[in-house]
Amino acid sequence: MRSLVLLLSLLLTAAPFGLLGEETRQVSLKVISDWLDPSQNLLHIQAVGATSTLHYVWGSLGPPAVLLVATNTPNSTLSVNWSLLISSEPDGGLMVLPKESIQFSSALVFTRLFEFDSTNTSDAAAKPPGKSYPPYSLADFSWDNITDSLDPATLSATFRGHPIHDPTGAFANGSLAFRVQAFSRSGRPAQPPRLLHTADTCQLEVDLVGVSPRGNRSLFGLEVATLGHGPDCPSVQEQRSIDDEYAPAVFQLDQLLWGSLPSGFMQWRPVAFSQKQGGRESAMPCQASSLYPTLAYLLPQSPIVRAFFGSQNYFCAFNLTFGASTGPGYWDQHYLSWSMLLGVGTPPVDALSSLVLGIVAVALGAPALMLLAGGVFLLLGRKWYSEYQPIN
Amino acid sequence: MSNCGHVSTVFAGLGQRLLPGVAVAVVSRSPVGPMEEEEEEARALLPGGPNEAGRGAPVTPPAPGALPALCDPSRLAHRLLVLLLMCFLGFGSYFCYDNPAALQTQVKRDMQVNTTKFMLLYAWYSWPNVVLCFFGGFLVDRVFGIRWGTIIFSCFVCVGQVVFALGGIFRAFWLMEFGRFVFGIGGESLAVAQNTYAVSWFKGKELNLVFGLQLSMARIGSTVNMNLMGWLYSKVEASLGSPGHTTLGVTLMIGGITCILSLVCALALAYLDQRAERILHKEQGKTGEVIKLTDVKDFSFPLWLIFIICVGYYVAVFPFIGLGKVFFTEKFGFSSQAASAINSIVYVISAPMSPVFGLLVDKTGKNIIWVLCAVVTTLASHMMLAFTLWNPWIAMCLLGLSYSLLACALWPMVAFVVPEHQLGTAYGFMQSIQNLGLAVISIIAGMILDTWGYLFLEVFFIACVSFSLLSVVLLYLVNRAQGGNLNYSARQREEIKLSHAE
Known about the structure:
The complex is a heterodimer. By secondary structure, chain A is α+β, with helices and mostly antiparallel strands. Chain A has helices at residues 2-14, 82-85, 146-149, 303-309, 330-333, 354-388, and strands at 26-33, 41-48, 53-59, 65-71, 77-80, 94-97, 102-117, 131-137, 141-143, 156-163, 175-182, 201-209, 218-228, 236-240, 252-257, 263-268, 271-273, 283-288, 292-294, 314-322, 335-345. In chain A, strands 1, 2, 3, 4, 7, 8, 13, 17, 18, 19 and 20 form an eleven-stranded antiparallel beta sheet that branches. Chain A has an eight-stranded antiparallel beta sheet with strand order 9-10-11-12-21-16-15-14. In chain A, strands 5-6 form a two-stranded antiparallel sheet. Chain B has 20 helices and no strands. Chain B is globular and about 75 Å long. The model of chain B is unreliable at 1-16 and 20-64 (pLDDT under 50). The A-B interface holds A 2-3, 6, 240, 242-251, 279-281, 326-328, 352, 356, 359-360, 362-364, 366-367, 370-371, 374, 377-378, 381 and B 105, 108-109, 112-115, 243, 326-327, 330-331, 333, 386-390, 449-456, 459-460, 462-463, 465-467, 469-470, 472-474, 476-477, 480-481. Chain B: Residues 33-58 are annotated as: Disordered.
């Protein structure tokens, strides 16, 4: 039954993409700065296709956040009103025009970095995974200038930050980085977990490097908030797959869908890595809690989200926890890396690679062919034999 | 009958790990029957020859000095005691062979090695046996004698396991590898010695049963290991306070107690065997194996095909079991205990099914068809594991069944294509190639897993089994074309035997 579903989903991906799917897009990355205070800026990724445009607006105004807006015209534009945006009432500071072209919009806010002490927890699935240290609020981080890290060749940019107040000096030699990358066509990066991306997606890689942990066996977690429609929250789907070719021994793909397809999605493999090479020996499990509704004032406020969506919003949040008390962890090399995709349309699904299909085809075909050929040979041989027998 | 009997003797010179169910398969040709038949078998078991005359002598009447049944070598009670010792003789080596598989996650985590290096632990076990399976019988017969041979091999197993454990305690992976190498030297040859003991004590008596029991004991050893070591590790972890290489080393050291137990059995057997020799004037057991490497050039094409079938098949079973535990936890979401249980099911099934399939193949003949069935079933089972999310118990039970069937149908075929005097060489060669295949494929499997994951690994195993399948088909065709005797039914074999007798 499950395999049938798998097969169906494979067929679905082979079918033409939904409303917004485009093979290739003209992708541009632009840093939009405040004229008055150039340290305040936004990263605008515009992916223009033949009949649609996707806008991703990343910003570190407040906690790191991203707006995701899909329009059904190649000519939509983003308008930023900085004086509104940095005011205490930022409503209307960000707009995508024309407004009626918007097909889908949502946002993600990365609100807090958690740290747990896993020393005395043997149960890997325990929630929370140990005694919690006070979390770092990402709204109180200072972020390096995004312009310096902008790389038009790879369509990527990095937000790198550390707490403004760091009394313990935990971030003295370390940082938390959000690396954003957009794609003009589909493909797969060389770095694990090698998520399949399309022109409709962009990738976020969260790296925590060199930060001194507060315990010997500290686990880190990330709180992610998003917009809900009404009081209900979108759900995290855990898809089991047979294919771990691109992320060895990871047979699961998690995704958050904001509505019925095609809509926006966030997709990740439940794995993080404790070493830069991202091999199997450094793979840590990544556990996601389910989404729970939360009140806006309980979360650090994101001016970007408020500027686009206004102040009347339902928020949902969920936590990602990286690693377990046993196995590789952040403590190995003070390194943690986790990746996700953000996009619009049908989430990409891995298909069996042609190499796998080729090998299986040969492996099953060769003995069958041999049997066939041999059978024919034996039959003909016998016939020949019986025909010539009477001569004797 | 004599052919069959000789086959049994040769089988005694082979390791059981790689030869599951064979002894039973062959010996069960004459299922427990009237006493005369067994006596006849006893004589048939002896390869003729002047210097062998003493060995087959009927059991000496009980010594006049009335010994209690348990201490009297000629009584059943005493033989049962010996049987118990024989069974536990192999227990340690079977228990410890699959220690790495049972502790895969722990070994990789605590020693900080990737899967490729982890699989070297299996490869190092196989390397010495590429050569040793030619000499195991020779060493037992000519150099050490059965008693000292058994003790020496047991010592190798013990020392190997201790060194393996020390490697964990000192966090030296090379030392662990070396331990497995030493363990490998002892392990396979110990199985040869164990079989020789069995033939020497039970030929013409309860030999079927004894081989069966020894095999079951081997499987029980593997199964207990799979299901016990993880638990043991967590207990050691609890008492030492934290997981780590020391915990791993201590756990393995505790596992090594089974090897000490085996060594004690070896010593006890040596004493009892010597005592029996004194009381019953019984000779030391011999494998009767004759190995002549120059025979290789005379091996026929079907025999080479049988070798290929054997290698292609077993490399898709043993390395898979070695790597299976994590596969079941990650892909199917099994708990650690459940994964251990399912990973040992192949062994669990083969324990009772080997005799059944042995009888089945004996009664029906048609070995190639049975081998074909087994290989196709294995292929199907690997396909299920690779491409579906169906409950893996189905696939693993199929694998267990086909594994038992293959052993019963494949190994006896060698005896049909090789003249009697070359049987020892043929079987030695078959085991050697198999060990070579296992060593190489173990390493390759680890590399594939690290780079491309389990799906690709399964596809690789499918390719191996399919290669084996290709050879089975070819063997069928060649046999058919040459009018060979491999696929005769049991009745045809009887008729031929009768016509030869006339």
